[in-house]
Specification:
Number of helices: 8
Number of strands: 15
Order of helices and strands: HHHHEHEHHEEEEEEEEEEEEEH
Oligomer: single chain
Distance between the termini: 120 Å
Structural class: alpha+beta
Radius of gyration: 38 Å
Strand content: 15-25%
Length: about 375
């Protein structure tokens, strides 16, 4: 009976309690790691040839499994195609095993008697192995032309495959893997203003030069004409204490967006934020110091990933040896702080405080009226002193 009630209670709890991270499963355009969640449909068949025309970009953007397949297929295919040509030359000259050879017969290729030997000769020629068992005799002009063509084709395939592999390894998005954003954003007071804060860190000691930070707010809006715009984009300005451009990105930084009357977050409050439907995409552009290649990093936040009334924990400290230490265990951790319920509430309190401060200053400048003081008229003739 106890086990039955326990299992029943567990089912009830499972039906009411959402697992961790369940709220962040809302469909989003940009994933946390920067990938765009979008599909293209109903593309005309003729447009697919555009990808073949731009074959270099297509090969660089395909997955590694297809690059390895292309590597194996290009070399193996070229060896086999040229082996057929070598086999055809040997067959035309009567060099194959079983063909009637006359006295004084001169072979075009030594020791190429069947298709297997022709394939091995093609492989040895293109990879410049040259075991010495099979070789051209020089008595057939076609073999000289064919070996030149195969050598040039082999060099071209080597350069093309090596270029693709090198380009994929050095893609800027690989450098972006070492730039990380905080899992959540927070809203709290900063420098006397209500701000939205996000943390970003460079995991490498090499700098990102000329770094720029900006954001886009994506949401569905309805125009005055009644048209619905899906993924309408609104600019979001982010700053750090040192500015917004040419950042000294050597340690984790806290980006902040001031929520004022020009901000799209102006109408939000602590209660309405979780029920909103928008996506905040944050971008960071920079140039890698070691490779001079451009780097582009992005992530996104949905309303359920923005904490109202929280502030990030400090992560930078100084050791006894004089070095600065960054504790990444607190990188995305936050703590509750006193925060206004909404922007209008904060502005109302600020205006009220400013009004009281102005009244206090005016009272100090003009003095305080003494209600017990009586005003009387003074006549000059009474107080004239004769000498």
């Amino acid at each position: 009976m106890v086990s039955l009630s326990s299992s029943r209670m567990l089912q009830v709890l499972q039906g009411h309690i959402q697992p961790a991270g369940h709220r962040s499963r809302k469909s989003r355009l940009v994933t946390k790691d920067g990938h765009c969640n979008i599909e293209f449909g109903n593309i005309e068949y003729s447009n697919h040839f555009a990808f073949l025309v731009d074959f270099w970009t297509t090969f660089i953007e395909i997955r590694w499994r297809f690059v390895l397949l292309l590597f194996v297929a290009s070399f193996t295919g070229s060896w086999f195609i040229f082996s057929l040509l070598w086999y055809w030359i040997a067959s035309s000259n009567g060099d194959l095993m079983g063909q009637n050879r006359t006295d004084g017969h001169i072979q075009c290729i030594d020791n190429v008697n069947d298709l297997t030997a022709a394939f091995l000769y093609s492989l040895e020629t293109q990879t410049t192995i040259g075991y010495g068992g099979r070789a051209l005799t020089g008595h057939c002009a076609g073999t000289v032309a064919l070996i030149i063509i195969q050598s040039l084709v082999g060099v071209f395939i080597n350069c093309f495959i090596c270029g693709i592999i090198l380009a994929k390894i050095s893609l800027p998005k690989k450098r972006a893997k070492t730039v990380t954003f905080s899992d959540t954003a927070v809203i709290c007071l900063k420098k006397g203003s209500l701000c939205l804060l996000i943390r970003v860190a460079n995991l490498r000691k090499t700098l990102l030069i000329s770094s720029q930070i900006y954001g886009k707010l994506l949401k569905t809006t309805t125009t005055s004409d009644g048209d619905t715009i899906i993924l309408d984009q609104v600019d979001i300005d982010f700053m750090v204490d040192s500015g917004k451009d040419n950042l000294f990105f050597v340690c984790p930084m806290t980006l902040y967006h001031v929520i004022n009357r020009s901000s799209p977050f102006y109408e939000l409050s602590a209660d309405s934020l979780p029920h909103q439907d928008f996506e905040l995409v944050v971008f960071l552009d920079g140039t890698a110091e070691s490779t001079s290649s451009s780097c582009h990093v992005r992530t996104s936040y949905i309303p359920q990933e923005i904490q109202w009334g929280y502030s990030f924990l400090p992560i930078i400290s100084r050791t006894t040896t004089g070095k600065y230490c960054v504790d990444f265990s607190n990188f995305s951790k936050s703590v509750r702080v006193t925060t206004p319920h909404c922007v209008q509430c904060f502005e109302t309190d600020a205006d009220h405080k400013n009004h009281n401060r102005e009244n206090h200053d005016n009272q100090q400048k003009s003095g305080i009226d003494n209600l017990g003081y009586q005003v009387i008229d003074i006549h000059d003739s009474v107080y004239i002193t004769k000498m």
